[in-house]
Amino acid sequence: MTGQRRIDIVTAEEPPTCPRCSAEGLLLARVPNEWTNASGAAVEGRNGVVLCAGCDTDAPAAAPLITWFHVHGSAGPEQREEFAQLLVAWAEQVSVPAVNEQRLEAETALWRSGQL
Asked: Which of 80, 92, 104, 114 has the highest CB neighbour number within 10 Å of its CB?
């Protein structure tokens, strides 16, 4: 990824739910998507990405942040710098996957038929 991207960390009372496995996530970030439409034009938008201890364990930039959450739980003033460094490293690698058009069409058909 090139250039600087704005990534927002979303805070809430309840932890986010991982959309991949439905387990409790560690944090939710809003990241810019990098999609293009059929004519090749950029589609601007932001999507939520959940850091999940189960799904993201093997991601090199996520693993240290997951470990940090398991050890510390939350960021207090004394851990703020270490947490920020791990968060930035993870955020620089986070991306929103491209839309799977076949899956989208299949889910739309199920929705229209009342099966979803």
From this structure: 92
User: What is the distance between the alpha carbons of residues 61 and 92, in angstroms, rounded to a whole number?
Assistant: 9
Beta-bridge mates of residue 50: 28
Residues 57, 39: Cα–Cα separation, whole Å: 36
The secondary structure of the chain in percent helix, strand, coil, rounded to multiples of 5, reads: 35, 20, 45
Question: What's the pTM?
Answer: 0.72
Residues 51/30, Cβ–Cβ less than 8 Å: no
Instruction: Report the interhelical angle of 62-72 vs 80-93 (nearest 10°).
Output: 150
> Which tokens is 17 given?
């739910």
Q: What is the pLDDT of residues 19-60, one digit of tens each?
A: 989 999 999 988 887 778 888 888 888 888 899 999 999 999
Please say whether the beta carbons of 83 and 75 come within 8 A: yes
